């Protein structure tokens, strides 16, 4: 079955006295690419990891007419996001309009998760793939580990391309952070924040 790859990443950092974040995704289908990076705004890293997945899935659902014969690979370096979405609603209970996890705590970012669930319901076939971020060790070893942990059969070259697209998302977010730092520094009349 043909597949489409959705690479996602999100992150947050303290700039000045606030936490800012951004998310980015890359869609690869055959040799066609689409990229998007969210403008920097306030929020947590987890929120922006989920936003990247949400925005990427919504883009796929809006722009691909025949999703029945296409498997969507959602590739992320966030194990928390994958686990949260993979188990979405499996152990959550809705009480008085509020979703709570198995420990009775209110589920964070429920609006984003509901949007993700809606998009996933429109896909016939999809799978989550966990990829290591910032690989600086033995790449062949991480490739072997990747194959063991994920149900995909890809070549080493394809794996290297996955790493590259994951890094591409990360680099776009870093660029957004650098732009925000300059913008805030200019507002405050200082050189660097």
Write the layout of secondary structure elements.
Layout: E1 2-15, E2 18-29, E3 32-37, E4 41-42, H1 45-63, E5 70-76, H2 79-86, E6 93-95, E7 98-100, H3 110-121, E8 125-130, H4 139-149, H5 156-188
Parallel strand pairs: 1-5, 5-8
Antiparallel strand pairs: 1-2, 2-3, 2-4, 6-7
List its salient traits.
single chain, 193 residues, alpha/beta, six-stranded mixed beta sheet, two-stranded antiparallel ribbon, 8 strands, 43% helix, globular
What does this protein structure show overall?
With 193 residues, this protein is of the alpha/beta class. Helix content is 43%, strand content 27%. The chain is built from 5 helices and 8 strands. It has helices at residues 45-63, 79-86, 110-121, 139-149, 156-188, and strands at 2-15, 18-29, 32-37, 41-42, 70-76, 93-95, 98-100, 125-130. The strands form 2 sheets. Strands 1, 2, 3, 4, 5 and 8 form a 6-stranded mixed beta sheet that branches. A two-stranded antiparallel sheet has the order 6-7. Helix 1 packs parallel to helix 3 (110-121). It is globular and about 55 Å long. 28% of the residues are buried.
Termini gap: 49 Å
Sheet with most strands: 6 strands, mixed
Helix count equals: 5
Q: pLDDT below 50 for ≥5 consecutive residues: which ranges?
A: none
The total beta strand count reads: 8
Beta-strand portion reads 25-35%
Look at the structure and give the mean pLDDT.
89
Q: What is the gyration radius calculated from CA atoms?
A: 18 Å
Question: From the helix content, strand content and strand pairing, which structural class follows?
Answer: alpha/beta
What is the chain-wise order of helices and strands? Answer: EEEEHEHEEHEHH
